[in-house]
From TrEMBL:
Native source species: Streptomyces galilaeus
NCBIfam families reported in the protein's UniProt record: CM_mono_cladeE, PRK09239.1
SUPFAM superfamilies: Chorismate mutase II (SSF48600)
Source species taxonomy: Bacteria, Bacillati, Actinomycetota, Actinomycetes, Kitasatosporales
Chorismate mutase domain span: 13-104
Record-given protein name: Chorismate mutase
Length: 113
């Protein structure tokens, strides 16, 4: 038979307190990540409009390669898995490129968003 906790009713109160303290930190970090991502997307949106105005390609693989190398080095010194850091950055960049393509299409068709 397996046992599982659905709540914290039968758990040592000190453990409950420690869990709440750690989760509070996690919530603060998640909020910071969301705010930082929002700022990053504001900047990349501006890059997207600049590129569209000057008919520059949405993606810049050379810039991406430099960012990945830099982020992997930062991750290593921060004791974060560099492969995870690379995956995370690639995930964000893919979304940015999608936005840039959309901005460029809207510019061509004279639509604004
Ligand atoms: C934001 C840019 O556009 C794309 C998105 C990038 C990013 O999100 O960091 C980097 C390179 C480009 O593929 C850029 O060229 O700087």
């Amino acid at each position: 038979m397996t046992t599982s906790h659905t709540g914290t009713a039968d758990v040592d109160p000190a453990v409950v307190e420690e869990l709440a303290r750690l989760r509070n930190s996690i919530d603060n970090i998640d909020a910071a990540v969301v705010h930082m991502l929002a700022e990053r997307f504001k900047a990349t949106q501006q890059v997207g409009h600049l590129k569209a105005r000057h008919q520059l390609p949405a993606a810049d693989p050379a810039r991406e390669a430099r960012q990945i190398a830099r982020l992997r080095a930062l991750a290593e010194s921060a004791k974060l898995d560099p492969a995870f850091a690379e995956k995370f950055l690639n995930f964000i960049i893919a979304e940015v490129i999608r936005h840039h393509e959309r901005i460029a299409e809207d510019a061509v068709h004279g639509t604004t968003a």
